[in-house]
Specification:
Order of helices and strands: EHEHEHEHH
CATH superfamily: Lumazine/riboflavin synthase
Strand order of the largest sheet: 2-1-3-4
Number of strands: 4
Strand content: 15-25%
Number of helices: 5
Shape: globular
CATH topology: Rossmann fold
Helix content: 40-55%
Amino acid sequence: MSAPPQGGVALVVARFNSMVTEQLLEGALRALDEAGLEGDRRGVFHVPGAWELPQAAARLARSGRWGAIVALGCVIRGETAHFDFVAGAANRGLEDLSREIDIPVIFGVLTTETPEQALERADVEGADKGGEAARAALEMMALYDRI
């Protein structure tokens, strides 16, 4: 991508499972740096957990300030149904927002069986799912600009 698309990128990051989400954030920021998206054209907003991602993403999207929203979180399966409720709510909320709002909303929420799987996917030197989510936002922003 030669020049970054118009607008800025808001990164909404869950603090729960921060050992994973901070790596996702690092990867996303690195990808935005590489694309030349700096300064006030990007913002980082922390929320308590994945459950709160859709709420904050909706508020940010409706502010009119951002060209894309990237939601970064991590839900690791445990011994109860809590995983299903939280992962499902984050997915549904962000999915609904993506169809309702006229900017890209990117799902960068890891849903894994184990902490090891989550760390492997978040690793900026490995799968770098945070960077992948940020690059998806930039690609979608460029597409929206062309349309």
